[in-house]
Amino acid sequence: MVHKNDNKVFLDRLRKVISSDNLVEDREGLKVYRKDGLAGYSGDPLVVAIPNSEAQTSKILKICSEFSVPVVTRGAGTGLSGGATPIKDCLVLSTARMNKVISINEEQRSATVQPGVRNLEISNKVSGLGLFYAPDPSSQIACSIGGNLAENSGGVHCLKYGLTFHNVLRARVLNYRGEVFEVGSEALDSPGLDLLALLIGSEGMLGVITEITVKLLPKPSAAKVMMASFDDVEIAANAVANIISNGILPAGLEMMDQGMTAAVEEFVHAGYDVNAEAILLCESDGSPGEVEEEISLIKDIFQSSGATKLSVSNSEAERSLIWSGRKNAFPASGRISPDYYCIDGTIPRNKLGKMLKNISELEKKYSLRCLNVFHAGDGNLHPLILFDASKDGEFEKTENFGEEILSLCVKYGGTITGEHGVGLEKLGSMCVQFSKLERDAFFSVKRSFDPEILLNPGKVVPSLSRCIEKGRVHVEKDKERFPEIAHF
Ligand SMILES: Cc1cc2nc3c(=O)[nH]c(=O)nc-3n(C[C@H](O)[C@H](O)[C@H](O)COP(=O)(O)OP(=O)(O)OC[C@H]3O[C@@H](n4cnc5c(N)ncnc54)[C@H](O)[C@@H]3O)c2cc1C
């Protein structure tokens, strides 16, 4: 009989099935996998497996389930909520080598890819056909499509074209025992319960995604971006609401406050107005005629909303430069502070101005600076709190600052995540957002896919004992089960 949790026997068994080229076992090699983009948390895996195929992945999962070894699937590790952070003695399952574009179906306008394919690679591959894959997280140069599915990632162009959820047709998935099943279909509808919808955004808790068919869209023939300056963040926020309420659905509508534009401008030299209290970037795409007409409407709305300065991109190079600034907002923050912590929450658009005022009060309360960048059209906030992890207690202070922002999101009728998932980071805030009944339902779903709780355990759904009342709803970190997940 197999000794459960016997690491040595487990590793011997794994080595028999998987070549040493596909395993990382040495201390130095394992260090690379200790964290994802949520730098404040880390954990030590027992072993990392980097399979080349679904068949190999299946064998690995089978052995893990036999030995009750937890599995943390990892795409590119750019996740910002700790979803790919290892838990003690787990197997990290990296999809990095499952990185092939399997087929492109021009007629059907779809592409079938392995999970480790980078987001941007899909658009690059089909660009010659006049097509593109719409969801464009700012990390698209690095992040994997499997990670995008698991997080239901968004991006600048999701306001018009939808999130990952709206752009995926089907997926092949392995369950915790390595058995394969398919969800969704290449047709517009598929029979039965919508398991694809459940899988999207499930953060590696329900299965390992091994193949994905995404929708491709025709590339618009023209696009221009308008940059608008405002001398008050609340006025800028109202301008966002005015654009949408006037029936315009821009390809992107982003907002940055003065601190953020200054940091970006110093890094990218995108031509941003660093004197404005806030800037808005609003993109129109379509045929040249449609773009001219829409840009003219957008200009009128911004002017009547109180914009102090307006400019429009005059070439593709200028447009790319303006977006490159926005997409480099996180690294730009990293240049001016030893550490930064990106918060992700969503609020109704008409609360953006109020929220910015609240954040500025919280900056004073915690004596920490916060730069703000938003997918404003979606009401998705990304406050970046600047801190120094080497200073005693500063990370904890930063986490509390972040939790207060998330609680305000709930108070304003929004959600504690927009696109970065829950992972480890927002377990506490899950207790603020969801009732016991709702959390019970999440658990039931998890158990029906993974009855032995082997896939990414301890993430996303707080255990019932975690949500306790302590003045405010508060989460105790489950030190007993996950002592290995360390803070800075
Ligand atoms: C600079 C920067 C900018 C970013 N900008 C954006 C943005 O604009 N929009 C946005 O939405 N996000 C953004 N992110 C967050 C991150 O890039 C996304 O969440 C992305 O989808 C993660 O992909 P990944 O391949 O790195 O996944 P990982 O970080 O490796 O994993 C993320 C989660 O997915 C699970 N997972 C990964 N692959 C699979 C699989 N094949 N099967 C099952 N589960 C899997 C993991 O277990 C984990 O829970 C940004 C991150 C950075 C660092």
List the total number of helices.
16
Overall geometry: globular
Domains (count): 4
In this entry the ligands are:
flavin-adenine dinucleotide
Secondary structure class reads: alpha+beta
Number of separate strands: 21
**What are the segments in which pLDDT stays under 50 over at least 5 consecutive residues?**
469-488
> What is the C-level CATH assignment of the largest domain?
Alpha Beta
Quote the distance from N terminus to C terminus: 41 Å
Query: From the alpha-carbon coordinates, what is the Rg to the nearest angstrom?
Result: 23 Å
Largest sheet: 8 strands, antiparallel
List its salient traits:
single chain, 488 residues, alpha+beta, Uridine Diphospho-n-acetylenolpyruvylglucosamine Reductase, domain 2, Uridine Diphospho-n-acetylenolpyruvylglucosamine Reductase, domain 3, Alpha-Beta Plaits, eight-stranded antiparallel β-sheet, five-stranded antiparallel β-sheet, 21 strands, 34% helix, globular, disordered C terminus, binds flavin-adenine dinucleotide
3D architecture notes:
The chain is an alpha+beta fold and 488 residues long. It folds into four domains: 7-94, 2-Layer Sandwich (Uridine Diphospho-n-acetylenolpyruvylglucosamine Reductase, domain 2); 101-218, Uridine Diphospho-n-acetylenolpyruvylglucosamine Reductase, domain 3; 222-331, 2-Layer Sandwich (Alpha-Beta Plaits), CATH 3.30.70.2190; 337-475, Alpha-Beta Plaits (2-Layer Sandwich). It contains 16 helices and 21 strands. Strands 12, 13, 14, 15, 16, 17, 18 and 19 form an eight-stranded antiparallel β-sheet that branches. A five-stranded antiparallel β-sheet has the order 5-6-10-8-9. Strands 1-2-4-3 form a four-stranded mixed β-sheet, covered by helices on one side. A hairpin with a 4-residue loop joins β5 (101-105) and β6. The longest helix is centred in the C-terminal third of the chain and has 18 residues, at 394-411. Residues 469-488 have low confidence and may be disordered. Bound molecules: flavin-adenine dinucleotide (FAD). Residues 36-37, 72-80, 83-84, 95, 115, 137-139, 143-144, 146-148, 150-151, 153-155, 203-204, 208-209, 330, 419-420, 456 line the site of flavin-adenine dinucleotide.
